Amino acid sequence: MYSLGIDIGSRNTKIVIWDLIRKEIAFQAYQSTEVSAVQAVEKLLQLGAQHCDISKITKSCVTGYGRKLYRNADKVLSEIVCHAAGCSQLFPDTRTVIDIGGQDSKIIALDSRATVVDFVMNDKCAAGTGRFLEMTALRLECSLDELSALAERCDRELQLNSTCVVFAESEIIGLLAEGNSPQNIAHAVYMSIAKRIYAQMAGLKAIPTLVFTGGVAKSLHLKICLQKLLNSEIKVAFEPEISGALGAAILA
Ligand SMILES: Nc1ncnc2c1ncn2[C@@H]1O[C@H](COP(=O)(O)OP(=O)(O)OP(=O)(O)O)[C@@H](O)[C@H]1O
Ligand SMILES: [Mg+2]
């Protein structure tokens, strides 16, 4: 017997098929949300069917930015509760979740019983999200993984003053034209995102254990910058983008 969790994000759609007996993930996958979120879910389910018997799925739950687009799920839940449940499954002592996706960022505070007690969300500005990293990678002509590796080789602190991705792009072009290295520019971008998240966290009581989730949690350098600012260790799951779908499957 399985439950199905679906997280339709602004960039990626994720599914987790949860084994209700063994209490473990039977299948997980993600793909770009593209134009049709419903099609993305169906494609992922077809993939899932190659790994487990999906006729044994007895309940399902959908979450994420596009959750209202998918009408075949038994339950619809907010990203806040699903990320909290998913992270608590991966790291049972989770008390603070930092979720950074392609379009927004959320900080979620949990109590010792993994119940959400508070959260703050930024969905107004792309400067603290994956979009900022994507734009930078495009400008520096590298992949997102290369961008993190690049930033680790920085040798000078540069200041990025723009508070908006559109202006930051012009600032990056200017910094390159002045002869600044891609390494130092990449580091400045990560620091700028980390400072935004740090400021956002001031809105609630963030206590350890801190867990960083969402696709952006794959950038090791951002984790390092955040750890430095927060003066606290941050945990990241092996595949951090699936925690919302995992939580949805558990809460289905
Ligand atoms: N290797 C990587 N390093 C850094 N960032 C990455 C990497 N791979 C993906 N990302 C970022 O993760 C984002 C996708 O993450 P995720 O799937 O959590 O977003 P989403 O849930 O679709 O968005 P949202 O929650 O904002 O609606 C991509 O847009 C990209 O910016
Ligand atoms: Mg998301």
Summarize the structure.
With 252 residues, the chain is α/β, with parallel strands linked by helices. It contains eight helices and ten strands.
At the third CATH level, what is the topology name of the largest domain? Nucleotidyltransferase, domain 5
Radius of gyration of CA atoms, rounded to a whole number: 19 Å
CATH architecture annotation of the largest domain: 2-Layer Sandwich
The amount of beta strand, in percent, is 15-25%
How far apart are the first and last residues' alpha carbons, in Å? 13 Å
CATH superfamily of the largest domain: ATPase, nucleotide binding domain
Low-pLDDT stretches = none
Q: Got a strand count?
A: 10
Which ions, cofactors or small ligands are bound in this entry?
adenosine-5'-triphosphate, magnesium ion
